[in-house]
User: Fold this.
Amino acid sequence: MKILKSLLAATAVSGLMATSVLANEALVKEGEKIFNTKDLGNCLACHAVNGKDIDGPGSMGPKLSGLAHYPDEYLYEMIYNPNAKNPISQMPAFGKNGWLSDSQIKAVVAYLKTIQ
Ligand code: HEC
Assistant:
């Protein structure tokens, strides 16, 4: 609560900039949740990331790393419809299939951009 209070104070002082940093943090959090949640993105079923290793039949996707340097559009497209870039991609088209909404994909992209 103390942290929340000082965050709120910081927001009040520095105005818009702090607000957008907080908004981005919320987006990253939402994206991470979608990434790790079974009935949402379930990306973790195929991708190891940020030290969370996976092992077993589901580990078919590459370990995600260095995505902070990727353009947003590339990452969005890769989630919306991987087949656009790779016709024989094993990754499902989360956007095209209607599994994730535009704003959910944007949240996941925000999270992916935090992956070193
Ligand atoms: C069924 C397994 C599977 C699932 C689930 C899956 N992926 Fe993938 N993903 C792959 C494979 C396999 C590739 C390798 C490229 C290809 O086949 O198109 C890949 C590639 C990627 C890439 C490109 C990496 C690079 O270095 O170019 C990104 C980004 C990515 N996936 C993100 C996600 C996100 C985000 C989710 C969840 C919304 C997800 N994946 C869910 C299998 C999966």
